[in-house]
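Pair request: fold both.
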Amino acid sequence: MMKKLDIYMTKNFLKYFSYSLFSFLGIFVLSQVFKVLRYVNEGQLSPGQIPLFIGNLLPGIIINVAPLAVLLGGLISINIMASNLEIISLKTSGIRFARLVRGPIFMSFLISLIVFYLNDRVYPGSVVRNRELRGKEDVEEREVPKEKENAFFRNVEGRYVYYMKKINRETGIMDHVEVLDMSENFDKIERMITAKKGRYDFKRKLWVFEDAHIYYPDTDTVEARAFIQEQKYMDEPEYFISLSNIVPKQQTIAELKKAIKEGSATGNEIREILSELGKRYSFPFASFVVSFLGLALGSHYVRGMSILNIVISILLGYAYYLVEGAFEALGMNGYLNPFLSGWIPNLLFLAAGLYFMRRAEY
């Protein structure tokens, strides 16, 4: 019996989830029509490219409306059962509400996994393709700068850090260099090298520091040298300069992680990238989180609930987006960890959902 009940509940949920998803898709696609027509008038798109451009918009729209569709699908499917007295009958027979909605909750988790895949594998490519259709240059194709001022690079494996006033990656020349040799835990300076110039020997693959001084903090002594050339300092000049102006939305999770690693090593600002990485992991599971709210709030029958369902789902959905935006801003401004700030809205709405699930038992 329970297996048939799970199938029945799941089919109802998927039915109204699909209706909601396609309804929201239609609304959001229509909202983009005027923007597309403006691109055509400005010469950024040709009429023949319109279907492809709109097709590339779909992954992003699906990702954004999936939580709303899950919320509304859960509200409608459970409320219809409640209006037919099915929910109260099943509760009276001794079946807990949490057991009744196990199938829809499991399906919402699968929906979250699908959204996760779209968000990582499909959406970044669709953004890039639409930029190309509009004739916009992709950031990844821009030339890496030849020079960088106030550069920084950390070699974790070698346990040393470079600081320099300027570096040219083509000539391999550094000006006013500091190299800090760190302890194994990176909590103590064991040796500090200062030099007026650093020159990369492309044949021997190592740095040669000219007019250098070595300071030993433990003994508080300084040693002057005309040249310092040690095999450990073999980091190529290209490592010191990287593109810091990548567009995070155009990157996959793997590319975001790579950008964070390179940015941390070269001293580039990575808060925006960290925030985007956190959203890539957290936002897809908003569909799973809000399913608890939708199913619980739809469990009590109220006359005229059909219109109220839509209002509730839209209000709760936009409440989630507002909370998410607020915590994202806190993360970007340094008040919270930008990666973890994406998960706080999920935890808050999950707590609210579990609370209403408990209330739905009675």
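--- second member of the pair ---
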Amino acid sequence: MSDLQEHTPATADCAAIVPLLAGYAEQDLTAVETAQVEAHLLHCPTCQKELTELRQLLSCIDDQLAPMPPLALRDNFLAQLAEEKANLPKAVVPEPTAPAEAKVVAFWAPTPTARWLRVAASIALLAVGAVLGLLLRPAGSLDMAARQPDASTKLAAHLTAATSQPATASRRIQLVAEAPATVQPGDPAVQVLINTLNADPSPNVRLAACEALYRLRADPRVGPALVQALPNQRDPNVQITLIELLVALRDKRAVPTLERLSRQQDALPAVRQQAENGIGLLI
């Protein structure tokens, strides 16, 4: 496939078409762009060859398995984060004057990316997923009606402050380190994690939300939320993680969703195989 990377557009038409070939291979172009590419390919053997090699590359990427990082590695990293957090200055939480209705406020900017790039990026995520998978971008404000500032109230204050401006990576790491220790089943923060799993554009953030929700599996909202989230996910790492967690929870409500996913033609082979394995373990 060296020709794919060394290809120099032979004509001005080629120079305009080459950037569109990846989107054409993944059927991700507009109707006008698709017609433009197809008209050019009819008389350009060079671009035809490059399109063939690009499709072979994407097929190889689709066949890659997406192994999960060991939970022990995540736990060790969380312990290191907790130690770093202990050395941070203590935040002063003002006493709330009135109850605030819990709500979710998204604070990330949409970043649309072509599907083929997301699939290719998932291979790179395997190398750093154990670390980046812990990044959590929570959104929302929690109920702060309690007069005594306990640990849950402090976390709610941090989450509320984070909605006023885009949270930095270090801020999100601090919040995800606090969540397992301070959030309890029944806490409004559980709903924030559920919304994050369903709405955050970053696969790494959604992976972290999966992990946090599994640790809070005693909450009756967690099981149904994981089942409902699975058909809405398109990132293979998130899909496989959800399947493994649902199997670990022995949640038979996931069987119909897994059956549909195992027959879903646009899902990666590794995801379909994982869904079939999950069905066998749950039935």
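Observation on the second member. Confidence is low (pLDDT under 50) at residues 1-7, 101-114, 123-149.
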